[in-house]
Structures are given as structure tokens and as C-alpha cells.
Amino acid sequence: MESSPQNSPDSPGSPRQKDVNNTLKRFSTFWIGCILFVAFGLASLVLGIGFNKPVVNNIDKVNAKRRAMIKRGVDKSHAGAREKALLSFERVGAHFLNTAPAPDEKPEFVLPGSATQKRKAAGGSGIVVPAGFPTVDPDAPVDVAVMEQGKAMFAICSACHGPEGKGMYHINKTGPPLANSEWVTGPVANLIAIQFRGLSGPIEVNGEKYTPVAPMAPLPLDDNSIAAVLTYIRNSFGNKASPVTPEQVEAMRGELGKPMLSPADLIPPTAAASSN
Amino acid sequence: MTSESSTGTPDQNDLKLRASIDRSLRHPVMFFFASGAAWLAVAIILGFIASYKSHDSDFLSGIEFLNYGRAYPAHINLLFYGWGCQAAFGLIVWLLARLSRSECRSTGIILTAGHLWNFGIMAGTLSILAGRGSGKPLMEFPPAIWPVLLLSYVFITVWSFIQVRCSYGGKTYVGQWYLLAAVFWFPWVYLTGHLFVFVFNGHPVMAAGINAWYKYALILLFFTPVALGTAYYLVPKITGRPIYSYSLALYGFWALAVIGPWAGMQKLAGAPLPQFMPYVGATATTLILIPGIAVGVNLLMTLRGHQAHIVASPSLRFTIAGIVGFLLLGLTGMALNTPATLKMTQFALTGYGFEVLAVCGFFSMCAFGGIYFIVPRITRREWLSRRFIGWHFWLTTYGILTVVVCSIMGGLFQGAAQEAYRSSWSDAASLSYAYNVGTTVAWGLIALGSFFFLVHLLLMWARLGKRSQHPTLLDGGHHEESPHGPDHEAEELQPAEA
Q1: Torsion over CA of A29, A31, A34 and A37, rounded to 10 degrees?
Q2: ipTM over 0.90
Q3: Model-wide pTM > 0.90
């Protein structure tokens, strides 16, 4: 740090000045400098190439590519799949229909106490009207109190058959009309059996065919209620028929627990008109 | 230092050599200083905007490219690369040429590389403001920029290495160690940081760790040695005395070289990294006070009995402010990296305060000292106005001090409120509110000071400085012997070319 202004090493021709002008040394120093600048980086790059597998840096981009690939594959395999599926449903469905076993009703296969056994014991699915079924005079007077009770009960029925008894079929394909229905004014045994067993399937009422979307569920109330509501529908909406008595309902109790009725099981109304 | 610090009559060859070195470097060095000062002004304005937005989110809210997420990174990047690096290049190129006593023979290449550097900074900053930044702290320039900057760095500084190696005169100055170390440490830090963050497919958490390391390495292994090299050149030069203790200087240098590279990862304390990494970083940052004390004691002892110089010489005044900044940096590093405080600094403003202290309070002050010393020599004109210099000094000093105190104190309150998990998170914002306002005001002060500096420097660049043999001194007195250094003989030796 001490000063030495004399003997300046910068005089021309001094060894130092020669070094300053040494082109070779300047050139080699340039490259030494450049290499030293990047030496560590170069070393890391070499190590990096050795140890660094090309790992995904941009996950989003790669995932987007992958997603596009998967979507292409799905689209490809979906092309024409609907037609294929429909075709196979048709074939498989037909196959199942053709090979479906017929319902086997061999006596040894019927469980004791089951609905099938009861039906077989009762002699089929039809309505069994017991002997001594009470009859009522078609012109017998209708009790106003019974009608009022029946009207109250009818609130349940009106959900499908409409408050006016015109049915809801034209609105939502549920209940067929009760008004001017030959079934309603027909045999009382039919109506009581329907209360106990329900009714399903297409039915023709007053010359018109109805195919309700849902069956009528069995609604086994007590004798008085069933008698009242049936009396009510038989004597409302322009209908006129004999009232239904609790005794009649009680006589039909044997129908309870049997399988649901279809219109074919019912007693034809024309025949019943006289038999009632 | 050696022949340059002699108070006797320097011999004629010596004067000629100095004049020719200064002449050969006039354009590149002035280019670096002037463009650095211009970027500094932009960085400060962006810092003002970012700080304003931190307490008033409606400020300039309609301008998309100035939102906080863009203005803040642009501010920090311009502070480091636009101003800091370019000031450092000017200092390195001039000081190493003077210390190795040889002219620059690559002026054109340095100037071209300097333009390339500025082009890179411009492109990077515009990218950040356009929302295309990379989002990695201090590496926000798009990944295409860093190789360009590295390339231009090589062509700016490699000539200084050639000068040092090819003109070794048997003596090595303290300033030379630091500057040459900085020349080699910058590409190491810069290349390593960018390779491991942008090129290698390491674990992302580790990349974040390297990113945190990079910021501290850039401060401690580039800005610090450049500033200390400048200080070790200026103090003996201006006072005309040798360094107080050569061995203490050596000790300080190696302490920095050994401790510096470990610092930085404390930013990730609590992150899923091996736990020794952040704590080694915290320890190293704590130990930065050791080179700080070595340098501080050495330079202040060199100045003992020369207080008049500090008052009078703008270069010395800035340099001493910078050395005090370095001591404060060491103390702050110690205070902020204890286990008790470390957890409060993770998501708070304290880190920003530390960076501003390092880059503005320490490095920039030393760089200003160097610039006030170098520019009159390369333009062969004296500074126009001591008022401008005085305003620059006081506004900058008080401004930076306020930013640092506000950021660190506000950050500690903020961090403590964040740690208090039973109280509302909004406490963290409300507790640091006043400090944020203080930071904004202080950036305004710094902007004003920087404006004086920029205007003054541009006037000097336009060679409108005073044609005087007396340096512009701050105390206004008449000095028998120039306290600004005894080498204004260039003027006598060689009349100015207009």
C-alpha cells in the first residue's frame, strides 16, 4: 500500500508493458475468462444431462395433451355406438324373449299359502262370488248419510277419477271415467273385488278403450266405508244403481289377498245387469 | 494507493497513462452510469407506485400494466439489473482499468454489449409490465432474456480480467480482490441460479430454495464486493493514506467469500426442504456482520483524523454512508435471522426492507461515491452544483433510511400479527398500514433525490460540467490541497477536447 511513484513500471519497454501488448496472452486470457465465467454452469449442465431425466415441467400443457388424446379415443369408440347398442339390445332382447321359460305352475312347485296356491284353490284368477251373496233391490232408497260418507271417502278416489267422476285419463292418463260407466252400474261383486284386489290393464269403458299408466291399487277399507263409497259412485255423476250394503262387502272378504285383477277377470257388466 | 495516492508530483508518464485510461473508458462508463441512473429513476417511480398500492388499492387501479403484481417485480428487477448491475459494470470497468493501469482496448465491444444489456432490461421490463413475467422473485424477466444478459455480461467484463492478468505489476490492491471476485462470482451466481430454476427439472421446492439463495448471493457476492472494492479504492485515494490494516482487509474479504454463498435459504424456513438448509442460510446471514465489522473498522480507522474530507468530498461522504449501510445490513441480518424473528419474516415486508438496505442503503451509496469520483475524471469537467449533490445525498439517505425502517418495523408487526392465529388476519394489514404509508412517502423523497442526480449526471454526460481545476466540494471552502484526490493534473496535461 505504500507509495512508489518512482520507477514506474509503465515505461515503454518494461516487462510489464510487454505483457500488456502480448496478443497471445491476451487471447488466451480471454478464453480463460470466458471458461471460468461459465465453468460451474457447464459442470452443472454435464451433471444435469447425466442425472436429469426429461421430466415434465409443464404439467398443465402435457395434461391438456393427454386429455385431448383420451377424448379422441373416447369419441372414436363412441362413434356408431348407439346404433350398435340398439342392435344388440334388439338381438339380446329377442333372445331373452324367445328363450324365456313359460311360467311353470306344476302343483309341486306352488308354495303352500302363496297367492298362486290361493288362486288355484279358488279356481283361477276370476272373482268368486260366494253362495248366498246378499242381493239388493235396484230401486231401494239410498240413505243420504251414506251418500255423504261416500262423498267424503271419494276424495281419495278423485285423485285419479276426478272430482266429477269424469276420470283424469284425458289429462294424465290415470283413471278412466266413472260417469256413465257400465262397470260402475254393473255387478256389485266386481266393484267390491276391485277394492280388495286392485285392477290393472287396458279397459274398455262405455265403448272407449283406456290404457292407464298405473294400475289401481287395492284399498281394503272397512265394510262401511267401502259400501258408502261404492253407493256414492253408483248414484252420482248421472249414474243410477242399487246401493251397496256392508253385508255385501263382508261377503266378498274372501277376495282379499288374491292377485291383482285384470278386466278379463271381471264379471261382464251386461250379464251382471240382470244378475244384480 | 501506491503511485496514485502519492502527494508528491506524479511523473509525466503516469499522468499520461491515467488520462489515456480515462479517455478510453469515457463512453462505456458514462453510458453505464447514465443508463443506470435512468433505470434507477424508473425503478424508484415503480417502487413508489407499488408501495402506494400496498395501502391504497384504488390508486391507479384502472391501469392494468401498473397493478401491484407487475409494478413490484418490475421495480425490484430494475433496481437490481437496470441500476445496480450497470452501476457495478461502470465501476468495475473503470476501477480495474485504473488499478491494473492499462487502457481499455475494447471500448466498442463494451458499448455494444452494454446496449445489448439495456435492450434485455427493456424487453424484460416491458414483458413484466405486460403480464408476461416468470413470477420467480428477481428472475421475473421471461426465460429468454437471461442468456442474452449473461452473454452481454461476458463481453462487458472479460476485458477487465484480461487487463488484470496481462498487466500484473507485482502488486495487488484490496479493491482489486473484491472487484475481480465480483467479476467471477456474478456469472457463477447468475448462471447457477437460472440454470437450476429454468433449465433443470429439479424439485420445484428446491427451485424455490435456489431462487431465494440467488437473491442473497447476488447481493452478497456481487453488489457487496463491488461496493467494498469501490470503497477500498476511494478511501485511501481521497485521503492519501494507505489502508489501516492490510491483514484485516484480507480477513474481511475471505470472511465474505466463505460466508456469503451460504446465505439466502432462510426465506424458506418451514418449507418442505431439509431443515438444515434454511438454518444454514440464517446462520450465514447472521455472520455477515463479521466482514461488515472488518470493513467498517478498516475504512473508518483509515479515515481517522480526516473528518474534514468526509464533510467536503461528495465521494467520501456517500462512501462512508454506504459503509455505515453495510454495518446496518450486518446488524439487521443478525436481528432478522434469530429463531424468534425468522418466523415473522416469512410473509412480511422485512425481506423487502433488507433488500432495499442492501441495494440502496449500502451498494448504491458506495456506487454514488464512485460515480461522483469517476465522472469528473472521464469527462474532464467538474460537477456543476454542490447543492444538487447535497440534495441528492440528504434526500437519498433519509429516504432510504425511512424505507428500510418502515419496511422492517412494519414487516415485524405484520409477521407477528400473522403468527397470532387467534386474531383476525386483517390485523396484519392494519398494523403495517402506517409503515406502508411511510415507505411510500420515502420513495417519493428518494425519487426527488434521484431526479437531482440524474439531471446532474446527464448534464455532465453532455459535457456541460464546470471547466475548473477545483473539484466541487460540499463545504464550499477553499482548499489549499485538494481533498478530492491529487489527480486533476490531466486537465493541465492535456487540454480538453470539446
Answers
A1: -60
A2: no
A3: no
